[in-house]
Known about the structure:
It is a single chain. Helices cover 39% and strands 11% of the residues. By secondary structure, it is of the alpha+beta class. It has helices spanning 9-19, 50-58, 73-89; strands spanning 29-33, 62-66. The chain has a two-stranded parallel ribbon.
Amino acid sequence: PDDASQDGPDExxxxxxxxxxxxxxxxxVLGLLPDGDEAVQVCTDGVAAPRMGAFLSVFPASLxxxxxxxxxxxFFEDAVAMIEDSCEEFVPPG
Length: 94
């Protein structure tokens, strides 16, 4: 679409990494996204989010779930655990 970002997932990731002093440990990326581009789909409308999915896959600490899930609780429980792990490993720049 005309209003889509001109950059792509690799550029988005590069900008985010630059903002975080190139420290992947300082970044946790979470996405509740349409799942039409996933092997297992919960949504029935076929809407996909391949660019956002590609962005998430750049980072080791990332988590994706379908926006069509009936219960987001497991996603958020996993997200909190991932954030806790990242915080434990994080060393502030200095």
